[in-house]
Design a protein that fits this description.
alpha/beta, Rossmann fold, Dehydroquinate synthase-like, alpha domain, three-stranded antiparallel β-sheet, 19% strand, binds glycine
């Protein structure tokens, strides 16, 4: 599965698939906003292009939205030889990937991520999901897209929140593997990064390389891939409860998980000072007092088993290890954090 940064190979890849039908799934707002791009895609595919519309954001990841997609697929008589194009942010690629993996036991799809978060993380690696009973990504599968077209042009239209969503995953990539990401970030004013396409492109390439590094080693997420979940155990526990954007939730999650690791004695205070300094340098300040993590959210985390959880811990910038700790210990350490 390849990731392309331009449309150059799109027609060839679609043609080679020789699909009996091609369907594009996107959200209602994106249908309007990306009208020009959708028409461009229509011209690049060899047959008619049906369009299926779903809600935007986390609403896309509801049971109802999955049902809507599968109903449309059925009404269009799609087969295992059909091809689906998922155009949108991480929520679109998550739910469309899931629909494609279960429809007739598997149908091919291409991801066209339109947000920074989706381009550096969500659309890569074949994880698909919807939320369920208030828990993030509770139902899902592993189903690789046949290709990903992460086109830089889409990023020009992002708002501040969408930008921070992606930036959080880039910062995470810096913590877990590629500390050079911080060398680049600390020289920038984060608020101006959006206007610096060359720097942004470098950061995107680096974050994609980090993602691919872990996915290649452990596609089914049984071990080292869990490093990509750094900041997400506690981040996800806050995201739906406090209606935070994914990016802010992950940044809070990273901050809290660093503190938990220190309280549990896995990271020395000296190292913690260096790690926390990264947040200061990036101008990110947190008030963790206002959030309370529910024990149940941690029990529902996909890294938990029995009364234990796999917990990614940063040893130094760019170095991560996955520890198995008891959930009781984790919660006790969390209560001591400030
Ligand atoms: N977003 C985490 C992963 O793909 O494993």
């Amino acid at each position: 599965m390849d990731i392309y940064r331009s449309w150059k190979m799109f027609s060839k890849i679609v043609k080679e698939r020789n699909a009996d039908q091609i369907v594009l799934v996107t959200s209602f707002p994106l249908r309007e906003k990306l009208h020009g791009e959708i028409e461009k895609i229509r011209k690049m595919v060899p047959s008619d292009l049906e369009i299926v519309l779903i809600p935007d954001g986390e609403k896309a990841k509801e049971w109802k939205s999955l049902g809507r997609i599968l109903t449309q697929f059925t009404m269009l008589y799609l087969t295992r030889k059909s091809l689906v194009i998922a155009l949108g942010g991480g929520s679109v690629s998550d739910v469309v990937g899931l629909a494609c993996s279960i429809y007739k036991r598997g149908m091919a799809h291409i991801n066209v991520p339109t947000t920074l978060l989706a381009q550096v993380d969500a659309s890569i690696g074949g994880k698909t999901a919807i939320n369920f009973l208030g828990h993030k990504n509770q139902l899902g599968t592993f189903h690789q897209p046949i290709a990903i077209f992460a086109i830089a042009k889409f990023l020009r239209k992002l708002n501040r929140e969408q930008f921070i969503d992606g930036l959080a995953e880039i910062i995470k990539a810096g913590f877990i593997k590629d500390y050079e990401i911080f060398d680049i970030l600390v020289k920038q004013k984060i608020s101006e990064l959006r206007k610096k396409p060359v720097v942004l492109e470098r950061l995107i390439q680096k974050a994609i390389a980090v993602k691919e590094h872990f996915v290649k080693q452990d596609f089914k997420d049984n071990g080292i891939r869990q490093a990509l979940n750094f900041g997400h155990t506690l981040g996800h526990a806050l995201e739906l409860k406090y209606s935070l954007s994914h990016g802010m939730a992950v940044l809070y999650g990273i901050f809290l998980e660093l503190q938990v690791a220190e309280k549990l004695g896995f990271v020395s205070t000296t190292k913690m000072i260096i790690l926390k300094e990264m947040f200061d340098l990036l101008g990110i300040n947190f008030n963790c007092h206002k959030f309370k993590i529910d024990r149940k959210s941690i029990l529902h985390d996909k890294k938990s088993f029995g009364d234990k959880i796999s917990f990614p811990v940063i040893d130094m910038l760019g170095e991560i290890k996955i520890l198995k700790i008891s959930i009781k210990e984790l919660i006790a350490a969390l209560e001591k954090c400030n």
